Amino acid sequence: MDYRQIIALFIPILIDQAFIVGLNLVNTAMISSSGVAAVSAVNMVDSLNIFLINVFVAVATGGTVVVAQYKGSGNDSMVSRASAATVTAVAMIALTIGLLIMGFHTPVLNVLFGTASAEVLGNARVYMIGSSISYVGIAVVQAVCGALRGIGKTRASLALSLIMNLLYVLLNIVFITLLHMGVLGMTIAVNIARYVGAACALYYLFKLDVTLHLRIRDLFHFPLSMLRKIMFIGVPFAAEQMFFNGGKLLTQVFIVSLGTYAIATNAISGSLAMVFQIPASAMSLAIVTVVGQCIGRGNIADARKFIKSFLWLGSISLALIGLILMPFFRPLVGLFDPPPEIVDDIFLVLLVNTLAQVPLWAISFILPSALRAAGDSKFTSITSMLTMWLFRVILGYILGITLNFGILGVWLAMNCEWGVRGAIFLWRFRGKKWYAHKLI
Questions:
Q1: What is the pLDDT of residue 115?
Q2: In whole angstroms, how large is the CA radius of gyration of the chain?
């Protein structure tokens, strides 16, 4: 694999990430027109959505790794089997999670966000039930896109993602801006967009794709040995995502106790921080295919070379984006129409985070993606879980609540956790154990 191939692989993922984050900004800005209570409700439930959706995205990532390694080894029939198994496994997990959330939405809301105002809770209930109905739709899209990224077909993955996300924004314009349906409108939009996206993904897989040669019946028959390979990567990563996002959910509970303005500050700061991380996030996805195929071919030297390149490029991109966008803070934050009282808080949080992520983000997020692609899923997952709870959660509570630093304290704890986690992953990368796993 040469750099020209990697650039061709990376560009569609970069465009996809830019659209996803950009459209997320637009959606947050649109729901802001329905008031602070609506923004707070959507942000609260989305913290739970991210926690749950990342469980089946983790399994889809396991599929991407297995597909990429089989592609690297030249075994096309096993590539097809791995792709079918990924779609089936991810869809079944999403269905189970969605049904559980629908059945237990009231106790979940009370436990997590019981201190929120009645208006915020009412909006949150509508959005939570609606979101859980849509899980199977986004799961199918993620699984198909994961398989396509594994074989290097990032353009097709981009097209499917754009169909789903652009439709979501267009429907939000209709239901929120034109019909003034608020959170209910957003809920209807997300369901239509995700299931249309799933239908398009399956149509592409069965009718348009010329390399995987999948048929509908393949989704109902896959060997347990293949499922075990996918779960070898997917289960530790899913457990990591549950603990990792569970920790983020717990910090969200701290933030709820700080009041509605604090929730809004966190939501807007988080949306803007994601814009700064677009190129680096795209690299963390692209490196799974690159390293997976290198390991499949048995070329460790290439894998090491590309990982080092991605780490440097990730940090450089974060520095450049920070220098370009921070001067435009006022127009960017104006998209959300925040209360004037919180604008200075958002600026401070974003400035500190922008400075911290230049040296720390790449080693904390791009590097574990590379290690996972080599089969080193258990180590990366255990490390992420431990650092999340020991540093981000406990230190976040101490700084944010006990020492009264508020939102800034929670974010500083997160930045500290990036540094500790990244240092451990760098130590692992310098050794040999990360590529010693026999996956295929």
A1: 63
A2: 21
